[in-house]
Design brief:
By secondary structure, chain A is mainly beta. Chain A is built from no helices and 11 strands. The radius of gyration of chain A is 13 Å and the shape is globular. Classes of the chains: A mainly beta, B mainly beta.
């Protein structure tokens, strides 16, 4: 059974800092991995999707890496801004259950202090 | 193009009552997924539906829960005889195609059972 863990559970940084969020998963036979952003009382917004054959994806100030064999992914946020404050969720899918059946971590709650 | 619409956003029920949660997918999307987020837990897959068909209900509790996605109208998640443990945020996501990992989430319906 796939288990997804995110560390730390909460993180507070001053504006402008670079930061790394961590995600680990127990079953390395993943189909893909996604990072989502969730704002309080809101839905989820997909930030980056990495296919199992890829090593990383970049979008603006965000970079996500994937090391499938060790069951790890990181989300790097450069030059953090107060608007980045949110909960960041990592999710993986498995080939046997399909790309849209996601296993989520419990998230990292990020606060960027102005 | 409106996003995924869920209603009600907040629902309060007493133990033993029924809860009905509705989800209108994005225009042109025929694949709908329901996820549940219990307090302090990650989102967990419940059910995947395509118009008029349940494709995967492996995450649905065996009793009291049902889902449908009729030919016309929204998808409905129905919880009969609610208990306190059903209190959670229920998220709907839609996708234009199967198995792409491309999911668009609604803002969720928050159920509180008194």
């Amino acid at each position: 059974k796939q288990e997804v863990t995110q560390i730390p559970a909460a993180l507070s940084v001053p504006e402008g800092e670079n930061l790394v969020l961590n995600c680990s998963f127990t079953d390395s036979a993943i189909y893909n991995l996604q990072w989502f952003r969730q704002d309080p009382g809101k839905g989820l917004t997909s930030l980056l999707l990495i296919q199992s054959s890829q090593r990383e994806q970049t979008s603006g100030r965000l970079n996500a890496s994937l090391d499938k064999s060790s069951g790890r992914s990181t989300l790097y946020i450069a030059a953090s801004q107060p608007g980045d404050s949110a909960t960041y969720l990592c999710a993986v899918s498995m080939a046997q259950t399909g790309a849209n059946n996601l296993f989520f971590g419990t998230g990292t709650r990020l606060t960027v202090i102005p | 193009n409106a996003g995924v619409m869920q209603n009600p956003r907040h629902l309060v029920r007493r133990r033993g009552q029924e809860a009905r949660l509705r989800c209108s997918p994005m225009k042109g999307h025929s694949h709908v997924y329901w996820y549940r987020q219990l307090p302090e837990e990650g989102l967990k897959f419940m059910v995947y539906l395509q118009k008029e068909n349940i494709i995967d209900e492996s995450g649905m509790p065996k009793e009291r829960f049902s889902a449908e996605f009729p030919k016309e109208g929204p998808s409905i998640l129905r919880i009969q005889q609610v208990v306190r443990g059903d209190s959670a945020a229920y998220f709907c996501a839609s996708s234009p195609r199967r198995n792409t990992g491309e999911l668009f989430f609604g803002e969720g319906s928050r159920l509180t059972v008194l």
